[in-house]
Design a protein that fits this description.
Length: 445
């Protein structure tokens, strides 16, 4: 289902995860990725541009929430906006009374009859007693088809193939139908939303006093779902949508987004011809699964993952050459944060596991590392590459941006200078000198 869209969006998130910098260039690339992916899924151009505009604005202007790096923040923005794009919140059917009446409406061939069976099974599995009612008095074989559907899942089917007036069918079974928890009414469609269909559906809806009027739309209509959902909502007061055939078309993204824009809640999706190919629709879960990365937490974890091995190797070489800038320091800190809390990292060093370091001291160190990451997130690329330019007003700006006092920024700069000095000394090969500087002694061998 929507494999292509999933692949593309996955690529988008991977691009963020891999990036060293979150800058306008990266954001522009992302925006292009997302536009391409959604347009291919038949999402309306205007909707696509509105979405990517929002993502871009937020990514460039929104204040970094505490505890998130720039990268994590960007992932969160893209993820949240995509979820919103598909309607944000799930909408569940709550069985508030018995019998609970669900009326399915929609055009020919969109999957109403098939969906009636799927819904009945869905509720049966949850312990409800369900029945199907055929109100399609248009198609000669409609009753037969529903009968077959009911037989497959062991659900009684009510209807009368000879009756030409749906209201008479309702009257005929009125008493008997009261015995059920859930009644699913299959209605007749037309090729298009015509006046007589509207009249028919409204008449049935009133007589039935339906608790839910659900529009069944095939995903293959793509962005045209917007027009259909709006028209059915206005004419027949539908209060939810079921999108079928999500399995058989690349246009499903378009249909989902189109429904979300009308405010119609997509309650279920059909993902195949079989009766179990049916799912409750939750935008959050849907997006997570589409990009195959679990929930947002897993996604954020990925962003925290260490620098690939190759980068670590590069860093080692740089150190040996005496080249070292704040980007390297930043990457080092990120790699460290991936290994876990400092106390854990220290335990991993041979010989250190026995030494008991005061917990408070470690905590202080840990907090410091976190703050440094925030500070570096507020630096421009130029500043990280060439920290010598960070003076006066730049320090003030960075302090404000990262929410730490200017003294912390200065301390980080001091640390950086020390690390750089060390790197230079390593280049000179004078480990002894370096140890002295650190206040240690070379062991005699
Ligand atoms: P109705 O005219 O609205 O009652 O539509 P039907 O229930 O008769 O379905 C029309 C066709 O769509 C049938 O061939 C179904 O098997 C097929 N169909 C319905 N739902 C799905 C679905 O979720 N996936 C796929 N692949 N086919 C479906
Ligand atoms: Mg039908």
């Amino acid at each position: 289902m929507l494999e292509k869209l999933g692949e593309s969006l996955k690529g988008t998130f991977e691009r963020i995860t891999r990036a060293v910098f979150v800058d306008e260039k990266l954001i522009n690339e992302l925006v292009k990725d997302i536009q391409r992916a959604l347009l291919q899924s038949d999402v309306n151009v205007k909707l696509v541009f509105e979405l990517t505009k929002r993502i871009k604005e937020k990514a460039l202007n929104e204040k970094l929430p505490p505890g998130l790096s720039k990268k994590e923040h960007l992932i969160k923005i893209v993820y949240d906006e995509l979820v919103k794009f598909l309607g944000e919140k799930e909408s569940r059917i709550e069985i508030k009374k018995k019998p609970y009446k669900i009326m399915l409406v929609g055009l020919f061939g969109n999957g109403k009859t098939t969906t009636a069976g799927k819904l009945a099974k869905y509720f049966m599995k949850r312990g409800y007693k369900a029945a199907l009612v055929c109100l399609d008095v248009w198609r000669p074989a409609a009753y037969e088809q529903l009968l077959q559907v009911g037989k497959n899942i062991n659900v009684p089917v009510f209807g009368d193939p000879k009756e030409k007036n749906a209201l008479n069918i309702l009257k005929k079974f009125e008493k008997e139908l009261k015995k059920y928890d859930i009644l699913i009414y299959d209605t007749a469609g037309r090729d298009a939303l015509s006046k007589d269909l509207i009249e028919e559906l409204n008449k049935i809806g009133k007589a039935l006093d339906a608790d839910e009027r659900l529009l069944v739309i095939g995903a293959d209509v793509g962005q045209a779902a917007e027009k259909q959902a709006t028209a059915f909502h206005e004419a027949c007061n539908v209060n939810g949508v079921i999108i079928t055939k999500m399995d058989g078309t690349a246009k499903g993204g378009g249909a989902l987004a189109a429904c979300a824009v009308t405010g119609a809640k997509v309650k279920f999706i059909g993902v195949g011809e079989k009766v179990d190919d049916f799912e409750h629709f939750d935008p959050k879960r849907f997006i997570s699964r589409l990009i195959g990365m679990g929930d947002i937490e897993t996604l954020l974890e990925k962003a925290k993952e260490a620098i690939p091995e190759k980068k670590a190797e590069e860093l080692g070489k740089k150190l040996l050459r005496g080249e070292f800038n704040m980007i390297d320091l930043y990457e080092q800190l990120q790699a460290m944060s991936k290994m876990g809390p400092l106390s854990k990292v220290i335990e991993m060093i041979p010989g250190f596991s026995q030494i008991k370091l005061p917990k408070e001291a470690l905590q202080v160190q840990e907090d410091k590392l976190k703050k440094w990451r925030f500070i570096m997130d507020s630096c421009t690329k130029e500043e990280l590459e060439n920290p010598e330019i960070i003076t006066g007003t730049r320090i003030e700006r960075i302090a404000k941006g990262s929410g730490v006092p200017a003294s912390e920024v200065r301390e980080l700069l001091k640390q950086y200078k020390m690390a750089k000095k060390m790197a230079k000394m390593m280049k000179g090969g004078s480990i002894e000198k370096m140890m002295k500087k650190l206040g240690g002694k070379m062991p005699k061998v």
